[in-house]
Amino acid sequence: MIDKDKIAASNAETEANLRADYDALGEHLSRRGIDIGKIKDKVAGYGVAVPSWGVGTGGTRFARFPGAGEPRNVFDKLDDCGVIHQLTGATPSVSLHIPWDNADPADLLAKAEETGLTFDAMNSNTFQDHADHPLSYKFGSLSHTDAAVRQQAVDHNVEVIELGRKIGSKAITVWIGDGSNFPGQTNFTRQFERYLEAAKSIYAALPDDWRLFTEHKMYEPAFYSTVVQDWGTNYMIAQELGDKAYCLVDLGHHAPNVNIEMIVARLIQFGKLGGFHFNDSKYGDDDLDTGSIDPYRLFLVFNELVAAEGVKGFDPAHMLDQSHNVTDPIESLMVSAMEVQRAYAQALLVDRATLEGFQQDNDALMATTTLKRAFRTDVEPILAMARLEKGAAVDPVSAYRASAYRAKVAGERPEVTSGGGGIV
Ligand SMILES: [Mn+2]
């Protein structure tokens, strides 16, 4: 973790300027009838989970270039995640991925306490073979033609739930790579029937206070057809399974130009929005940093979420899911967490009563201008003040660089040579 005095020293340099900016923004917002303190309190209470796999350097299908001081195991990952939360105050939980993060639950809990973190949704993995699984997932997992492979995949998911139960998690996210690469390779209907039957077996193992999130993705690794390819299929799954089953929306898992915020609205309307994997994309499932390409879309998603606040049972999980090839993953995850917070703060500024009036009057121009006005407001002083007040860093990236944390862990963690390509 980073020395608290170093964070305080970093904050002292900018505190006076921040207070002046915050007061000026407060005055501006009060003219719009908005209490800046209320917005700041909501932002301060907001958290997004960090994916354990996000703190390692990712890669592409072509190569992976390891970074200095990469985490060697789940405990190193939790140290890195602890630093992200320490500096941003925005990432209180971690989403684990099994088998990558398999460890003794008591040791995981001890490390979580040491780093000030809790565990968010668990993630299972049947898109690659496991050393201790005798059968291969090459031709699928939950939808495989062989019942023994399906059972092996179900058993794995049940084990992940069991581990999650011991460490305080309350949800499991299931994403599978099942599909096909050739027309005719599979029977779409039979394959989906097999998937549903297997998913029902996982659902049956869910504790009463747990939720099951299924995650859709248009393509990859299957390039012709994918079993859970879009939100429509995902919604059918959630409907078939029951009340504890919800849809997870990964922003990168849609065709270009798809109206994701509208999908979010539909899932909210029918009580099936389970949560998010935030990231950004230009072409496909690029796993780029959240808000790095299309911050307006992120804002529009949050506009739907803020509009739904207070709806009974509305409690989507918020997680980041991105891959870092050219940046220090800790820096990318800090910036992304702040981008998510920024979109939330901007969405809180939308004048909803006025917007509704323009919608009712079919005043398209003024309706969209109302949204834009909130989006254009620079809310950085609100975010920074929320961080300052909770002892996090006003400028997390500067404080992180000044701490030399990466150089320190690089000395303790020998560089891992790449075992091959692929996003890991
Ligand atoms: Mn995802």
Automatic annotation (TrEMBL):
<feature type="domain" description="Xylose isomerase-like TIM barrel">
    <location>
        <begin position="96"/>
        <end position="287"/>
    </location>
</feature>
<dbReference type="InterPro" id="IPR013451">
    <property type="entry name" value="L_rhamnose_iso"/>
</dbReference>
<keyword id="KW-0479">Metal-binding</keyword>
<dbReference type="InterPro" id="IPR013022">
    <property type="entry name" value="Xyl_isomerase-like_TIM-brl"/>
</dbReference>
<keyword id="KW-0413">Isomerase</keyword>
<dbReference type="GO" id="GO:0046872">
    <property type="term" value="F:metal ion binding"/>
</dbReference>
<dbReference type="Pfam" id="PF01261">
    <property type="entry name" value="AP_endonuc_2"/>
</dbReference>
<protein>
    <submittedName>
        <fullName>L-rhamnose catabolism isomerase</fullName>
    </submittedName>
</protein>
<keyword id="KW-0614">Plasmid</keyword>
<dbReference type="InterPro" id="IPR050337">
    <property type="entry name" value="L-rhamnose_isomerase"/>
</dbReference>
<dbReference type="InterPro" id="IPR036237">
    <property type="entry name" value="Xyl_isomerase-like_sf"/>
</dbReference>
<keyword id="KW-0464">Manganese</keyword>
<dbReference type="GO" id="GO:0016853">
    <property type="term" value="F:isomerase activity"/>
</dbReference>
